[in-house]
Amino acid sequence: MGDKMTIKFYNMPYNYKAGMTLKNSNMQEQFNMALHICNNKEDILNNRKMLADALGLPLQQFVFTNQTHSANFKKIASHDAGQGALTVDSAIPNTDALYTFEKNIVLTSMTADCAPITFYSEVDGVIGTIHSGWAGTVKEISFLLFKHLKDAENIDLSNVYIHIGYSLCADKFEVDYDVASQFEALGYANEYIQFNNETNKYHIDNQLVVKTQCERAGIPSTNITIDRECTYISDECFSYRQDKDCGRHVSFIVQIEEKNKHVETAN
Asked: CA 97, CA 111: separation in Å to the nearest integer?
């Protein structure tokens, strides 16, 4: 990408592009991608357009949602392209996960500590994004979406590949029992909850709970990769825990039509 921006691209089949934008102090608004929290919306649109140019697709092919830490997901069709791309008001409301079988539509998820999930299946041609902060995790958004894909879309989950992006690590995800108890109630997350006797706080590994949910839905553990970089610690990351006014990363995935397979693939 050169020195103009910071985008982490994931290792994908040639006709799939996925990755995550990162914080860059040399960029406008530190390469923030969020229109709902920024100093200048035009700068954010310019940042988004840089990402669009890197993918070789117009910004009008992107889809953004108004994330509410829900377990709501939506199937995206071609007529949804452009929602939320240029204005906050046009974003898909009250939705934290997207999937589509359409090509050349860029699905997105915005995070600053929460776990961003991208997934695809070459066999079934499906792609998707999931935003899973702790509230979405205890609502089992990943499990519910993959169950839906299996039951309603006849997706063979053994062919689905998942990437969990930069998130808040367990050391920095410090909570009281009101939150920890919700993870305990899942019945399978206890090994990812640690209690600190000195601080009387609980520490939870949200990424590994999400991974477990994907496995419980039927996705092989060998099909799941995780970036273990902590958003609170890394200079490349925005962290809401560290700064309530911080920007947001965008995680993205798109299936490129054959004629566009020349799109740049690495940073």
From this structure: 12
